[in-house]
Amino acid sequence: MIEKKRRTMTNPKNNDDQEPYILQLPDYIIFEILCKISISKVIQCRLVCKSWLRFFSNPYFTKTLCSRTPTSLIVSGPSNDHYLVGLDESSRPHGDVSELSSYRGRSTDIVGSCNGFLCLHDSRRSRFYLSNPITDESVVLPKHYHLDRQCGFGFSPVSNVYKLVYFSFYCHYPIFGDGYDGEADVMVLTVGSTVWRNVGKCEYPVGYQDYGIYVNGFLHWVAFGLNVIKAFDVERELFQSFPPPPLPSEGTSRENWSASRLVVLKASLSLIVPNGDNYSVWVMKDYGVKESWTKELEIVNDYFGHIPTEEGQVLLVLHHQLKAYTPGKIGFSKVEVDGLPKRVATGCVHIPSFVSLKDIISS
């Protein structure tokens, strides 16, 4: 019986028709393997064979995989080239860097990252693009006759749709004048639609930060000339106001407030406010509750950009170099990553996804 069994194993009907051995493993084992390798290696696994590609096309698998995949960074170079940088479990960059070829030759700024999808703005062509850098897909969004830089990209978990919001402001407004009476048309495009909709008017909500910060189903801006945070409900397409943290009166001039920047830190809405020679970082730990604002740290007032990570470490673009600031430690440490250009411009936190753009457009 042993010899007969050996003959069966060594003489299969057709070795070429057999499924790859690794795909014969239970799904949960394959899932655990993929969760332990870098995102660039996972991307390469999609290209091995058609069986692998079908495996990655399973919506449940891709959603579950991305919930376990470490957060990455999208870093912009000085020539508008973009790079995907892997992070380890401690939110430190490692040598896993991939250049995003889809954006070569385009003068694009990152509007926002949401559920693995990037929205980019090409200021030269006045166009918006939506892409998934992991699947290397990119589409041009319908153009509107009047496009400004002030916009935001978000997701409605209620309707399961993505929306692009921008403010069409036609009249001149004072930068730091005594009065302010300007309004903007609020235009909304649902991804998958070809129609921009005017959903009403709003006091111009933008200070120095053009692109809205997405948290908890809302897009957020620091209100120009008003000591409030404007939050746009992506589902209901309405604005509401959030109170700022309890800032000292001497540090809340109109100039300082308009220069404040919203970010996402520890998955919470956070505010970086000029405070003398430093920047104060406040975190809203209970979303929408004024009393939950907590001052987390002070950062030296000498940085160009910031990329807050989920674990609390803050990556700074300081003098066109990527540096790290860790709460409780003094000074900055230079972050050197092979594959990145020597000079970088800015970047954002990105959660990789294998969901196809076709799926969200068709839905």
Write the layout of secondary structure elements.
Layout: H1 2-10, H2 27-35, H3 39-45, H4 50-56, H5 59-68, E1 72-76, E2 82-87, E3 93-99, E4 108-114, E5 117-122, E6 127-132, E7 137-140, E8 151-156, E9 161-168, E10 183-190, E11 196-203, E12 213-215, E13 218-222, E14 229-233, E15 238-242, H6 254-258, E16 261-265, E17 268-275, E18 278-284, E19 293-300, E20 305-308, E21 314-318, E22 321-325, E23 333-334, E24 346-350, H7 357-362
Antiparallel strand pairs: 1-2, 1-24, 2-3, 4-5, 5-6, 6-7, 8-9, 9-10, 10-11, 12-13, 13-14, 14-15, 16-17, 17-18, 18-19, 20-21, 21-22, 22-23
Description:
- Residues 19-65 form the F-box domain.
- This protein has two domains: 1-69, no CATH class; 70-362, 6 Propeller (Neuraminidase), CATH 2.120.10.80.
- With 363 residues, it is mostly beta strands.
- The protein contains seven helices and 24 strands.
- β20 (305-308) and β21 (314-318) form a beta hairpin.
- 33% of the residues are buried.
- It has helices at 2-10, 27-35, 39-45, 50-56, 59-68, 254-258, 357-362, and strands at 72-76, 82-87, 93-99, 108-114, 117-122, 127-132, 137-140, 151-156, 161-168, 183-190, 196-203, 213-215, 218-222, 229-233, 238-242, 261-265, 268-275, 278-284, 293-300, 305-308, 314-318, 321-325, 333-334, 346-350.
- The protein is globular and about 70 Å long.
- The strands form six sheets. A four-stranded antiparallel beta sheet has the order 3-2-1-24, with no helix packed on it.
Provide keyphrases for this structure.
363 residues, mainly beta, Neuraminidase, 2 domains, 4-stranded antiparallel β-sheet, 24 strands, 15% helix, globular, disordered N terminus, F-box-like_dom_sf, F-box domain-containing protein, F-box-assoc_interact_dom, F-box_dom
